[in-house]
Amino acid sequence: MIVTLTANPSLDRLVPLAGPLERGAVLRSAAAVDQPGGKGVNVARVVAAGGRTAVAVLPGHPDDPLLLALRELHLVHRAVPIAAHSRVNLTLAEPDGTTTKVNAPGAPLDAGARAGLAEALRREAAGARWVALSGSLPPGVDDDWYGRLVAQLRSTGARVAVDTSGAALLATAGPDAPSSSTALPDLLKPNAEELAELTGLAAPGRGGAAGAELEADPVAAAEAASTLVERGVETVLVTLGGAGALLVTADGAWHAVHEPVTPVSTVGAGDSTLAGYLLAELDGAAEAERLAVAVAHGTAAVQLPGSTLPGPEHVQRDRVTTRRL
Prior knowledge:
Blueprint: E1 2-6, E2 10-16, E3 33-37, H1 39-49, E4 54-59, H2 65-72, E5 77-80, E6 87-93, E7 99-102, H3 111-125, E8 130-134, H4 145-153, E9 159-163, H5 166-173, E10 187-188, H6 192-198, H7 208-216, H8 218-231, E11 235-239, E12 245-249, E13 252-258, H9 269-282, H10 287-302, E14 320-324
Parallel strand pairs: 1-4, 1-8, 2-6, 4-5, 8-9, 9-10, 10-11
Antiparallel strand pairs: 2-3, 6-7, 11-12, 12-13, 13-14
Helix pairs in contact: 1-9, 6-7, 6-8, 9-10
């Protein structure tokens, strides 16, 4: 079983535009589509679609449309009650596949909600293979919360993956993060820009140029990721956009790339990559195969509109090439 935590869930609203996005103009669209979202929710949905048991832990008002949407999808979830409804994130999709996202900050989590989420997570993690802590932290949550949750989850026996960004990522695995192995995740999934910030190749919040250089040079990216392994992170899964992804462990580094595709939407691609990796790990696959399945899932996601997530019918593993660096 895989358990996910989404501290900052959302209802993702896709608005397909009839023409290019034009600032200041009155635009026409097709009917909007709402889907339950948030990175942990996305991971759980892909895992469940892949035929494995997934439980999504999240905060939610009892009457929240997000929870209704999860029930309609028959996704197993544990919601900790909060007073506010989940945020609504807006995705504007142009006909050529370009997407513009407008993300709201999310509902604050007070001490009671945080304690409830931590307890629900520990309870569900008992007997689980993996726990994925995914996404941004909402207002009221300290940057180091994921690291503290990782330490608390050690007693459950579950392995822990973290996929976040910004200050929360740096507090979890950056140079100034606690060096204790109990607080470091077993698996970290940054993109190239986040990897540059984590490893000091770029200042926090300014990893764009350095990230682009890492995407263009998988060997350099693998060398950067290996410094995280030296700090104590067992596995680093780095997404490189159109250049595929990397997997780096103490045993080596692998690079995988999918045959070229025409992107439709990048929403959920990273979450699908992580879910693909976890599915392959549950199947007992070796490192190279885990990476290949991860890339196949991420690439499947970018070929689907808006926040639509891939199922097995969308994944083309045979179009992925993997090499050891």
